[in-house]
Every structure is written in structure tokens, then in C-alpha cells.
Design goal:
The chain is an alpha/beta fold. It has two domains: 142 residues, Aspartate Aminotransferase, domain 1; 245 residues, Aspartate Aminotransferase, domain 2 (3-Layer(aba) Sandwich). The protein contains 15 helices and 16 strands. The strands form four sheets. A seven-stranded mixed sheet has the order 4-12-11-10-7-5-6, with helices on both faces. Helix 4 runs parallel beside helix 12, helix 13 packs parallel to helix 15 and helix 14 packs across helix 15. The longest helix is centred in the C-terminal third of the chain and has 17 residues. The radius of gyration is 21 Å and the shape is globular. It starts with a helix and ends with a helix. The structure holds 4'-deoxy-4'-aminopyridoxal-5'-phosphate. The site of 4'-deoxy-4'-aminopyridoxal-5'-phosphate has 14 residues, from helix 5.
């Protein structure tokens, strides 16, 4: 029966790698996943920074059920008043600085980055972009153009031309960019897939200054850092730099698929003029998804889950001391534990699985182990997880 389900998965679904983990999940609750054999795993990655309030929070489940019973899809984005969407947009805007006052909802992070890139071209009348080396912004062809790593992008060329790559925190590289040609800069405050590497305040400030001087838009990809992950609702709050466009995804939908790009209304209005329908989507801001996202944001705020994030980070850092741990990168509950190499990480992930811990690696930091649990993880769970990680390392 079990192997039959696995076979159905392998035979009927497109795969992303030759050897998928293929853990057969049958239930998720709180900070745990349960497999078909009754094994329980503490979730140390939260669907990659999606399930920030844990799995199956009753408030989210209730919001989904209530909205599904009212109406689901009725009409494409932007044509009818659907209060789950507009109320969620209002709730988000109320958490943001004045210039981030208008939300465009889409269905994924990649689509949100793509929309932000289109918006940027419209607003500036320019076409070139700046992105960071070894950044990941999504897998469709717009975001893929922002990927410096040829191994992943070469097979899909031609992509969008004229993307300039700078290394994170390389201030001197910023000066060699042809700024008068640049439409926008896409940057993460914590560069996730490079192993949770922090962008310095000086670097972000320099980018902000160049954008101001040359009428370019500064786009923050907070798809992974958003919704409390780094210890504040959004990571940009910690560096005190406000972007022109904020891109959200992952936890935005409270476990449902959703992306958004958020900017000033005046900028956003370019998408509805000459041509009209400059960006359209059938399902963007789906009412059930919007209801789930709004409920999750309420939980995040009303249960005050963000204020404990730095303490939890500290505990992970205190407990994860071992000669095989070379460094811990990241901020808040977005951590990358650096081991010797890819093989050590893979072995550790496998041993952790045997010990009831679910983890993962990073696209551009294969020597790092990912720790991005639900923000609801308790101190006891952190201590127990760390003990099990250390014992997995001992066995390596
Ligand atoms: N930007 C970042 C920083 C991401 O981590 C991801 C997803 N890993 C994306 C964009 C793309 O999001 P999606 O998978 O929803 O298209």
C-alpha cells in the first residue's frame, strides 16, 4: 500500500530531481509532520518559510472553510469587489510605510517578482536590472534571468538581456554599473539560497542612493524573509531602508499559494493604462487564499509570535556548538548551519530524519543545513532538535 503510493507519485508526477526524498506525509499539525508509517517529524523548514505560524492553525483552517462555503473563484483578479482580497490588502498596507500602499496579488513568488519587474520597466521606461550573484528569485523566465548561476539558467537561454550582477556587500562593484540604463535593483536583505547571508546596511544604503539618484526602483524580495522570519514583520524594518517595491510570497498565504508586489498607487496605476490590462491573472488574490493569509497574519500578530524570534535564534546558536559546525549564518529563525561539504549535509539530513527531524539544504550553499522552523517552535523543541542534530553529526 505504502510503496504503491510512492510508485504513483514517481510514475505520474513530473519530478524536480532524479532522487526525490519522497517522504509520504499524511498529516501536519503545529510544528510536526506525520508520515504514512506513523513517524513524527519536527519540522525545521516550515515548507521553506511558509508555515510561520505552524501547520493547520485552527484560525486559518476555520477561515478557509468559512470562505470556501461562501464563494471561491468568481471572476479574474481586479474586476469584482471581493472583500477577502481587499481586506487583506488593507491589513498589509496598514503594516507598511506610506509609499507601500497598493497591493497586487498573484499566485506565487516567481509571479510576484515577474510582476514587479514589469512594473519597474513601465515606471522607469528603462529595461536593465541589477541583481545579486547567487540569488534565487523564482523559476519562471523573468526571475530566472536574475539568476547569475549558469548551471541553472544556461539551458533556458535566451532569457531577459542586460542583467548586471554584483556580489552581495561589494560596494565597489556598485560603481561600475551603468546606472543611467538601470530600471531596477532586485535584492534580498538576507540572501536566502546563498545560505542566509546578510546584506549589510551600507550596501543596501548605497543601492538606495543609486536608485534615488538615477530614478531606478529598489525592489526588496521579502518572499522568504517576510512575516516575522527574521525577527521583525519584514526584514527591511531592521535596516531602516524602505524599498519602492516590496515583493512577498511564501508565508503571505498562510499555507496557501499567494504572492504579491506592493508599491505606491501612482506607480501601480501604470499597469492599468496604455495598455490597459498591463498585468492580469485569473486566480491572483483568490478569496480562500486571501482569507487564509489574513487569518495567518492575525495569528502572527495577536499571538505575538515575532517578539520571541531573537531569543529562539540565540538558543539555536548556543546549542549548536560542535567541531563539525563551521559557522551559523542568518538572522532570526532563518539560519544556515555550515558543515564541511555537501556530502556531510546530506548525511546529516538523512540521520536527522531517522531521529524525527525534517530539514533541507540550500540551492547555492550545498554545505549548509537549513533551519527555518515555524516561529511557534518552543524552547524545549529547539533544545531537543539541537541535541538530535549534534548526535547526527557525531554519527557522521
Ligand atoms: N524569492 C525567494 C527569496 C525565494 O526563496 C523563492 C522561493 N524559494 C522565490 C523568490 C520564488 O517563489 P515561488 O517558489 O513561490 O515562485
Amino acid at each position: 500500500m505504502h510503496s504503491f503510493a510512492r510508485q504513483t507519485f514517481l510514475e505520474n508526477m513530473a519530478q524536480t530531481s532524479p532522487n526525490p526524498l519522497a517522504l509520504h506525509v499524511v498529516r501536519a499539525e503545529g510544528n510536526y509532520l506525520f508520515d504514512v508509517d506513523g513517524n513524527k517529524y519536527l519540522d525545521l523548514i516550515a515548507g521553506i518559510s511558509v508555515c510561520n505560524i505552524g501547520h493547520q492553525h485552527p484560525a486559518v483552517v476555520q477561515a478557509v472553510q468559512a470562505q470556501a462555503a461562501e464563494f471561491m473563484h468568481v471572476m479574474v483578479y481586479g474586476e469584482t469587489v471581493q472583500t477577502p482580497q481587499s481586506n487583506y490588502a488593507k491589513q498589509l498596507v496598514q503594516c507598511l510605510p506610506e509609499n507601500l500602499n497598493c497591493c497586487y496579488f498573484v499566485n506565487s513568488g516567481a509571479e510576484a517578482i515577474d510582476g514587479a519587474m514589469k512594473l519597474t520597466k513601465r515606471v522607469t521606461g528603462k529595461t536593465q536590472f541589477v541583481a545579486l550573484t547567487d540569488a534565487y528569485h523564482g523559476s519562471t523566465q523573468g526571475p530566472l534571468s536574475l539568476m547569475s548561476n549558469d548551471y541553472y539558467s544556461q539551458a533556458y537561454r535566451p532569457l531577459l538581456p542586460s542583467v548586471h550582477f554584483v556580489n552581495q556587500n561589494d560596494l565597489s562593484a556598485i560603481d561600475s554599473i551603468p546606472w543611467s540604463e538601470i530600471a531596477g535593483v532586485v535584492v534580498e536583505i538576507v540572501q536566502a539560497e546563498r545560505g542566509d547571508q546578510l546584506s549589510s546596511r551600507e550596501f543596501l544604503q548605497a543601492l538606495r542612493r543609486k536608485c534615488d539618484q538615477h530614478c531606478c526602483l529598489l525592489i526588496f524580495d521579502e518572499i522568504q524573509t517576510g512575516f516575522g522570519r527574521t525577527g521583525t514583520l519584514f526584514a527591511f524594518e531592521q535596516v531602516g531602508i524602505v524599498p519602492d517595491v516590496l515583493v512577498l510570497g511564501k508565508a503571505l498565504g498562510g499555507g496557501m499559494p499567494m504572492g504579491a508586489f506592493i508599491a505606491d498607487r501612482a506607480l501601480m496605476s501604470t499597469l492599468s493604462n496604455q495598455p490597459i490590462l498591463g498585468h492580469i491573472t485569473t486566480f491572483g488574490g483568490h478569496p480562500v487564499v486571501a482569507a487564509a493569509g489574513a487569518a495567518a497574519l492575525n495569528v502572527l500578530q495577536s499571538e505575538d509570535l515575532i517578539s520571541a524570534v531573537f531569543d529562539k535564534e540565540k538558543l539555536f546558536r548556543q546549542c549548536l556548538k560542535h567541531p563539525k559546525i563551521l559557522a551559523i549564518h542568518g538572522r532570526g529563525l532563518m539560519l544556515a548551519v555550515q558543515l564541511a561539504d555537501f556530502d556531510s549535509v546530506q548525511l546529516c539530513i538523512q540521520k536527522m530524519l531517522d531521529k524525527g527531524l525534517f530539514s533541507d539544504w540550500f540551492l547555492f550553499a550545498p554545505n549548509c543545513l537549513r533551519i527555518s522552523p515555524p516561529l511557534t517552535i518552543s524552547h524545549e523543541e529547539i533544545e531537543s532538535a539541537c541535541q538530535r542534530i549534534l548526535s547526527a553529526l557525531e554519527e557522521n
